[in-house]
Design goal:
Strand order of the largest sheet: 1-2-3-4
Number of domains: 4
Number of helices: 23
Radius of gyration: 33 Å
Structural class: alpha/beta
Amino acid sequence: MNSKEEFLQIAELLFPNVSENPEDIFKKYPKRNLDEGQYVTRFAPSPTGFLHIGTVFAALVAFKLAKQSNGVYILRIEDTDKNREVDNGVNLLAQGLKDYGICSDEGVISSSEQIGDYGPYMQSERLDIYAVFAKDLVSKGRAYPCFITPEELEEIRKKQEDMGVRTGYYGEWAKWRDASFEDIKKEIEKDSKFVIRLYSNGDGEEEFTFTDLVKGKKSLKKNSIDSVLLKSDGYPVYHFAHPIDDTLMHITNVVRGDEWFASTPLHYEIFQALELDVLPYAHISPLMKIDEEGGKRKLSKRKDPEADTRYYSQQGYPKEGVLEYLINILNSNYQDWKRGNKEKSYDEFKISLEKINRSGALFDFVKLESFCREYIATLSATEVYERVLDWAKEYDEQVFKRLSENKEYCIKIFNIEREGKKIRKDMCKWSDVVGQLDIFFDDLFNSLEIPSMPENISDEDLKNIIEEFISSYDPDDDCNVWFEKVKAISESLGFTSDYNAFKKNPSKFKGKVGDVAMVLRLKTTRKMQTPDLCEIMKVLGKEKVVERLKN
RNA sequence: GCCGCUAUCGUCUAACGGUUAGGACACAGGAUUCUCAAUCCUGCAAUCGGGGUUCGAUUCCCCGUAGCGGUACCA
């Protein structure tokens, strides 16, 4: 064990240019002027690729916690691993989150913009801060330089495995743990690479209990590993940056992925070494899916296209539906709340941490689509038009052109069965419109295959149905009147509108009114299944209807 | 391997130690209907296994099993 003086000497040797101490830093980050119940949360992703749907899921928790308490939500970027960093990664995160309505009160707005008084919010810009705390720790004997090589580390691990003891750099195995000033000086003079490690004094066998805001009271073994705090390039590892940043930014609740759960004892020890108060944690489980072999696994960045939020944009799932679905996984009582608050938006719903699921939820596309369908059903025709237009602008040039050139007409199309009590729910994503437009545009209509008529319709009947329909058709008719007319035509030609009578004695009739309507449907739309035929005809206009019927 | 977390219908989940184990999505059937969709009704369907504790266990404890996570100069 080194003496106090030696620690000071080592600290000075390692960090000759660091003149500040933690107190100086704390002064720059004054306490926030907030009340007890107001949450300050942060979401702190790494810019390592596209925005993962699981990232949105976790960010949503931090965001809602802050919003529902009138607190502050911060986006901090943890760009401390230059090897994994991706071009434009920061913008992908910031913009993507913003697209889902998760807007930062403070923090990173884009790769070139940050707002707030507690920055910088990019960890790569905070290196000098970490150095101050690292130096302080070294000077107190709670951290030390370690010159061990990767090869030596590998050797240690092998030995530990052979001996059947816990692996890791700790205790007796940590050969630089108690190195003298002289030995360290020698290495520094040789310009050897080194990292700064925590001088752990935890007992790895001892129980350690803490309360997780999601999981409840839990116990783990205490940390005993001399973890790396500062890498040889001077960048901090997550474990070191997290206590410092979250303390300085006055975060009240740490929301983070479940993968951090197991390192909580380490974080507690670092907080303690730093002489800082620990923060309450909420560990959020990842989103899962069933893989090819039938096993459960985390939604994977590489294997699963649906892990990328851009997939949802490209398919045209409304972000409101996606968000509602995620909230529903978070707190399943959302649906009950929604039933009692039909007019309210999901962002008025308050989530509670204790209700968040503790293992990993399977991502259920069917349910996601159900939420999206319900959401789209609440929109007006004009809103649908605008949303589809936005989507098409990005992802479907032809649809975009068609929509922009026929605005009024398209709004009429989207209005079919959108008003009144019979609301269509056949659209769960914007791209669904692609297959719904062909009835209404001749170029698309003409390329549809010409269907054959129902078997019980003779050529004679066909001719009569069409003639009689055309002569009585008035586009101004109410759809009830429209149908009465179709019934009348049917009856006059021997097709019944009395379904019970038909069921009892089918041979008495040529068919039902449905068969007659089907003839009209097939002639005007070339499809067996369509929305309300009367409404379709109104949109098409009499001229077009007559033309198609006669053809 | 070691350490830990988790375990209720197919899925997401609800249930002060006492419920016919509830809801939602999905599915099936029915009603309605010009087809489809919608809507309404009905149905199907679960406490991982084994031990305890208790008058009584989905709930508490132990063991097992499975899934997941951690065991990095990645986050």
